[in-house]
Amino acid sequence: MEKKSKIDIMFDRMKEKKKEVRIVRRIVLVITLVLLIVVAIAGYQGYNYVTSALEPVDPDSEEVIEIEVPIGSNLDSISELLEENGIIEDARIYKYYVKFNNESEFQAGTYGLLPSMTLDEITESLKTGKVYREPLYTINFPEGLTLEQIAENVIAEKTDHTAEDFMAKVTDEAYIDELMASYPDLLTDEIKGENVRYALEGYLFPATYQFYEEDPSLELIIEQMLNATQANIAPYTSILEERGESPHWLLTFASLLEEEATAKADRATIASVFYNRMELDMPLQTDPTVIYAMGEHRERLFNEDYEFEHPYSTYINKGLPPGPIASAGASSIEAVLDPAETDYIYFLADSEGTNHFSVTYEEHLQKRDEYIGN
């Protein structure tokens, strides 16, 4: 057999390498084609899925599905609520759709929505707060009421429940424990403090509520009000954590402002007075705490009343009382965390309810003589 020359061997090697390159190229081409096909299929399926999710879930459906959008709900929670109830196909796609269209400011409330509604129709309903049935009850709970006043002036007058039934419910230890488990961030162990008169005092948010039952239960009323309190405090959670304070501290402080203020603008100024007094280690000396401690309504207090010894009296004790003395509104809550910057230490209200503020005690006495007299 004739021996191959070096050139022949090199030539054979070159042919083998070219053959290998052609095979590798074919493999790469096949893999690329497969990947392109997979991507195309995935893209087509994704397109179909998104297109389907943008359409009504069931165009022919006449079923009305009732959903409750709580106060303080954000877009994420609303989208998930709609998907869970079969109103939309996909919460994520609806969320992106809403953001892409720059929609916002959805309204809390009870809605009767249909799977046949378009995303635009759903969004418009949530924006306008339009509901598909009228509430059977609309109950207003004014700001500044104690639990006993809520029982007597609202529950007993505007529902089929008695004041006694309401007070029994809000003081039921077993029920309070259930609520604490349901609202762990709001209802902490502080509400069961040794000197706290009522655990839920100040925790039922004052507002106008709509009910869709002929006879709303006390539990429904109470828990709807707690939901509103939680929603109104939620924006300030990070501020409270930074300050090392709790919702109980916030609602207690806010309740003092609610009872002392005679105008919206006064709350921030009165808050500054209380902060200044605490900074100077002075008692807050706010009359509403004495009235609450005495457990009876008083138009005015006498000198001996200020000596009434009770944990809630801010004349006898320094700092805040053990708990709220009334239900505070949003403006009072905000004023606690954003007080005015003043040097005021004293204030008094004249016969028309206007508050007058002073830096020194001498100035305070002058204003007392001027606006109140002997």
UniProtKB/TrEMBL annotation:
<keyword id="KW-1133">Transmembrane helix</keyword>
<comment type="similarity">
    <text>Belongs to the transglycosylase MltG family.</text>
</comment>
<keyword id="KW-0456">Lyase</keyword>
<protein>
    <recommendedName>
        <fullName>Endolytic murein transglycosylase</fullName>
        <ecNumber>4.2.2.29</ecNumber>
    </recommendedName>
</protein>
<dbReference type="GO" id="GO:0071555">
    <property type="term" value="P:cell wall organization"/>
</dbReference>
<keyword id="KW-0812">Transmembrane</keyword>
<keyword id="KW-0472">Membrane</keyword>
<feature type="transmembrane region" description="Helical">
    <location>
        <begin position="23"/>
        <end position="44"/>
    </location>
</feature>
<dbReference type="Pfam" id="PF02618">
    <property type="entry name" value="YceG"/>
</dbReference>
<feature type="site" description="Important for catalytic activity">
    <location>
        <position position="260"/>
    </location>
</feature>
<keyword id="KW-1003">Cell membrane</keyword>
<dbReference type="GO" id="GO:0008932">
    <property type="term" value="F:lytic endotransglycosylase activity"/>
</dbReference>
<keyword id="KW-0961">Cell wall biogenesis/degradation</keyword>
<dbReference type="GO" id="GO:0009252">
    <property type="term" value="P:peptidoglycan biosynthetic process"/>
</dbReference>
<dbReference type="GO" id="GO:0005886">
    <property type="term" value="C:plasma membrane"/>
</dbReference>
<dbReference type="InterPro" id="IPR003770">
    <property type="entry name" value="MLTG-like"/>
</dbReference>
<comment type="function">
    <text>Functions as a peptidoglycan terminase that cleaves nascent peptidoglycan strands endolytically to terminate their elongation.</text>
</comment>
